[in-house]
């Protein structure tokens, strides 16, 4: 079976390959290193030996009695194909291939610096990519020798061999060769954790609570999740760049937008909020850009839009994902500053006018929708998404910051008490009892802060006591559109009438297994840690036993 020539650089030295003799071919890939060439030099005539040693540089003494890493491995383990990367000249590389005494393909590279990770990666990825693309080698077993070359070369081998091109690793020392186990998986143990925590570089900002940061004093909470969100928002406030605030309904997106404005140099200028979902599409353009008298039926006078009224300040486009495609195209043009102008220069024409208007307005947008998914469905412009999301801030839902819920509830109830006191002289302030605090912390609050406020408001109205109990809050959330938490339901299932404790506990297990998989983005090793399991094999067994579907 013949194999095609693989070209990774300007020149490739090839010798005919022997027919594949195993059902699963084994392919070795390695660099040619100094130790390999010194081992070869030790067996050459003096003149040829000195020429090779001068080419190698550094220690000119030949490695007498040793075969070098590549030949040591090849004398110990059989491989169907051998691919060697060489940063030496063609003549020396060709001599080395001949000295090995077995079929090999040498790929010449031109590295100015053998410690340059980027250049090494490009060279290695080119060779590995062509090997992987060879259909004749579709089921081959890839093997990598780590010993030759610089530490940077070995690091790149590990990176690629544990991710893009899964491989078995080998090492050598003197005349010994062995398979080397690297006891971690980048795709399971490292990369998912990095992706899950993209804000790790903001840890220094998380050392401050929101109340300590000017402009963010109104944001209650001290959890890590809220500190990191505030840390990103604080950085965003310093620059006149568009910000996209994402989060579930009721999570406090407008509060963050106002805090960003308050922490910016525009704090003394207007802040205007426009709810794009609450205004009919036919009127939204007029609300944003204004209109001339007589521009449409009912336009009996000239109207300045939000972009004009927010000149010098900030406009907040809430639920921007609800805008139709026509308005998205207009927003895209407005968000592109005219050439040679400041980043927040906005140029537009009011409805019914051909005369352009310019303002200096910062844009902060918010949505509870999955905008990338809307882009895929053709319902949101991809170019507008990139224009809005120069900086993205995700507001964590209450269930991801349970340590903050009691403090938030206390602050909301304090505001409710003040309002009631103004309406009713002699009103006695309500407070939350221990059982209610326990309920508040356990409940998932799918409607987030807005639902929590409504529940406290209803409980304060309906209870005759000056103490709000768990039953008052339970009654309030049971009447809300989002219903009662599954966590609370699980404790209130009636006994008898076919109740099975084993079946009920399995239902609870399925709930938490699926929740852990969702919160870990499907990474089983991380999900296992969230559930307190020692390894993901235990999690796998539970998933199979209970028939849990991967999210």
Compute the number of strand runs. Answer: 16
Largest sheet: 7 strands, mixed
Rounded radius of gyration (Å): 33 Å
Return residue spans where pLDDT drops below 50 for at least 5 consecutive residues. Answer: 1-22, 483-488
Percent of residues in β-strands = 5-15%
Counting helices, strands and paired strands, the structural category is: alpha/beta
What number is the mean pLDDT? 83
Major β-sheet strand ordering: 1-4-3-2-5-6-7
Question: Helicity, in percent?
Answer: 40-55%
The geometry reads as: extended
Q: Span between N and C termini?
A: 44 Å
Please tally the helical runs, counting DSSP H or I stretches of 4 or more residues: 22
Describe the structure.
- The protein has about 550 residues and is an alpha/beta fold.
- Helix content is about 45%, strand content about 15%.
- The chain is built from 22 helices and 16 strands.
- It has helices spanning about 35-40, 45-55, 70-75, 90-100, 115-135, 150-160, 185-195, 225-235, 255-260, 280-290, 305-310, 325-335, 370-375, 380-390, 400-425, 435-440, 450-460, 470-480, 485-490, 500-520, 525-530, 535-545; strands at about 10-15, 25-30, 80-85, 105-110, 140-145, 170-175, 175-180, 245, 270-275, 315-320, 345-350, 355-360, 360-365, 390-395, 430, 465-470.
- The protein has a seven-stranded mixed β-sheet with strand order 1-4-3-2-5-6-7, sandwiched between helices. It has a five-stranded parallel β-sheet with strand order 9-10-13-8-14. A two-stranded antiparallel sheet has the order 11-12.
- Helix 5 (about 115-135) packs across helix 6 (about 150-160), helix 20 (about 500-520) packs across helix 21 and helix 21 packs across helix 22 (about 535-545).
- It is extended and about 105 Å long.
- It starts with 11 loop residues before the first strand and ends in a 5-residue tail after the last helix.
- Mean pLDDT is about 85; it is low at about 1-20 and about 485-490.
